[in-house]
C-alpha cells in the first residue's frame, strides 16, 4: 500500500541547521524509513535563493521518500496542511542587543507563525521549536494558536539531553546505550539543570557509576552540559548545527515512535503544574512517549539540590514569559 506523504515544514531552511536537517528528513530519519514526505521550506526573502540551492541538492540525492518540495516566504503557504513543523529560523542575538530586544524580535517571527499554524496546519500538527530562545519562542507560537492543543507545541532540549548522555558515558567508560533516564529540567539556556541523580548507567545509579563524586557533578558535569552551546561557538567558530539537527530528528522521531522501555527523554513542553513548575510555562521535563503522545514521568523524589536548580531555571522561564507578556506578544 502506498502511504500518504507527511507534510513537514522547516523554517530557516537555508540556515546551517536547515542544511544538516533536510537531507536526513528526506532520507527517512525523522519519521521512519517507510514514510514519504513533502518538504515545505519557509525562508525570509533574502534566504529564498539559497533555499532553492538546497532544494536542487535534495533533488540530486534522488531520495525515494521525498515526494515534493515547496519553497516560500509566506507562512500561510508553508504551514498549509503541515503535519510536522520544525521552527528553526530565528533572530540571533547581535552585539548590543538586550534580552528584551531579542524576545521582541523573535515575537515578531513566532507570533505570526503561531497564527499561520493555527489557521492552516493539519489537525494532527506537531511543532518543535529549535530557534532560540526556544522555550519562550515556543510559548509565543503556542499562545498565538488557540485552536491547536497546547501539548502540540514543544521546545528542543534534546540536544542538552544527548550532551548529558555523552558526558556520562565518557566518564563511566561505557557506551551511550548504557546510560538511561537522564533529565534536562527547565530552560534551554545556561540555567538548565542536567540531572544525573535519577539516571542509571548499566542498571546502577548513575551517580555511583561515575564515582559518587559530587564535586565532579557540580563543577564539571552540570556546567559542561549547560554551557556546551557556548563552548561549541568558541571552538568551532559557529553555533552547533549538525548536532542540533540530529537532536531535532531525535526529538520528533521519539515523539512519534515512542521511548524505549526502561528509558525516558527530555522535551520542553507546556507545564501541567508537575514538580511545582507553574502551569503554562514551556519547560523541559522527563517524558515518556507512546503512539504520538507524551507523559511527564511522575513520582521522582527531588532533593534540595535538585529543587534549587529546577527553581532557578523555571524562574528564568517565568521572567521571559513576563517580558513577552509585557511586550504584548502573548
Ligand atoms: P542560521 O542563521 O544559520 O539560519 C537561520 C535561518 O533562518 C537563516 O537562513 C534565516 O534567513 C532564517 N530566518 C530568519 N528569520 C526567519 C523567518 N522569520 N522565517 C523563516 N526563516 C527565517 O542559524 P542556525 O545555526 O541554523 O540556527 C537557527 C536557530 O537555532 C538559532 O536561533 C540558534 O540559536 C538555534 N539553536 C537552537 C538549539 C537548541 O538546542 N534548541 C541548538 C542550536 C541552535
Ligand atoms: C546550543 O545549545 O548549541 C545553541 O542553543 C547555542 C546557541 O546560542 O545558538
TrEMBL record:
GO biological process, one term: malate metabolic process
Segments forming domain Lactate/malate dehydrogenase N-terminal: 7-147
Highest rank taxon of the organism: Bacteria
UniProt EC number: 1.1.1.37
Binding site for substrate: 93, 99, 132, 163
Domain Lactate/malate dehydrogenase C-terminal as annotated: residue spans: 157-324
Entry-linked SUPFAM superfamilies: LDH C-terminal domain-like, NAD(P)-binding Rossmann-fold domains
Catalytic reaction list: (S)-malate + NAD(+) = oxaloacetate + NADH + H(+)
GO MF term list: L-malate dehydrogenase (NAD+) activity
Active site: 188 (proton acceptor)
Binding site for NAD(+): 12-18, 106, 113, 130-132
Annotated keywords: NAD, Oxidoreductase, Tricarboxylic acid cycle
Keyword NAD: yes
Coiled-coil regions listed in the entry: none
UniProt function note: Catalyzes the reversible oxidation of malate to oxaloacetate.
NCBIfam families: MalateDH-SF1 (TIGR01759), PRK05442.1 (NF003916)
Recorded family membership: Belongs to the LDH/MDH superfamily. MDH type 2 family.
Protein name: Malate dehydrogenase
Organism this protein belongs to: Kitasatospora setae (strain ATCC 33774 / DSM 43861 / JCM 3304 / KCC A-0304 / NBRC 14216 / KM-6054)
Gene of this entry: mdh
Amino acid at each position: 500500500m502506498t502511504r500518504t506523504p507527511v507534510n513537514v515544514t522547516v523554517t530557516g531552511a537555508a540556515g546551517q541547521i536547515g542544511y544538516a536537517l533536510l537531507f536526513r528528513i528526506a532520507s527517512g530519519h525523522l519519521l521512519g524509513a517507510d514514510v514519504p514526505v513533502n518538504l515545505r521550506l519557509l525562508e525570509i526573502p533574502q534566504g529564498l535563493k539559497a533555499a532553492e540551492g538546497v532544494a536542487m541538492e535534495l533533488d540530486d540525492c534522488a531520495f525515494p521518500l521525498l515526494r515534493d518540495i515547496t519553497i516560500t516566504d509566506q507562512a500561510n503557504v508553508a504551514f498549509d496542511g503541515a503535519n510536522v513543523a520544525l521552527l528553526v529560523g530565528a533572530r540571533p542575538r547581535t552585539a548590543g542587543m538586550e534580552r528584551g530586544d531579542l524576545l521582541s524580535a523573535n515575537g515578531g517571527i513566532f507570533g505570526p507563525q503561531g497564527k499561520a499554524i493555527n489557521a492552516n496546519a493539519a489537525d494532527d500538527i506537531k511543532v518543535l521549536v529549535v530557534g532560540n530562545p526556544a522555550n519562550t519562542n515556543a510559548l509565543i507560537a503556542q499562545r498565538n494558536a488557540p485552536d491547536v492543543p497546547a501539548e502540540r507545541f514543544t521546545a528542543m532540549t534534546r540536544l542538552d539531553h544527548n550532551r548529558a548522555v555523552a558526558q556520562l558515558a565518557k566518564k563511566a567508560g561505557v557506551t551511550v546505550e548504557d546510560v538511561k533516564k537522564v533529565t534536562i529540567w527547565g530552560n534551554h539556556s545556561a540555567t538548565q539543570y542536567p540531572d544525573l541523580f535519577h539516571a542509571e548507567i548499566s542498571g546502577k545509579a548513575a551517580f555511583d557509576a561515575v564515582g559518587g563524586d559530587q564535586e565532579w557533578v557540580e563543577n564539571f558535569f552540570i556546567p559542561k552540559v549547560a554551557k556546551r552551546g557556548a563552548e561549541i561557538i568558541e571552538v568551532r567558530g559557529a553555533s552547533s548545527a549538525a548536532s542540533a539537527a540530529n537532536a531535532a530528528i531525535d526529538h520528533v522521531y521519539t515523539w512519534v515512535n515512542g521511548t524505549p522501555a526502561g528509558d525516558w527523554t527530555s522535551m520542553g513542553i507546556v507545564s501541567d503544574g508537575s514538580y511545582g513548575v507553574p502551569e503554562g510555562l514551556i519547560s523541559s521535563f522527563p517524558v515518556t512517549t507512546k503512539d504520538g503522545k507524551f507523559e511527564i514521568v511522575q513520582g521522582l523524589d527531588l532533593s534540595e539540590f535538585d529543587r534549587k536548580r529546577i527553581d532557578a531555571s523555571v524562574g528564568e522561564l517565568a521572567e521571559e514569559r513576563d517580558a513577552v507578556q509585557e511586550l504584548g506578544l502573548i
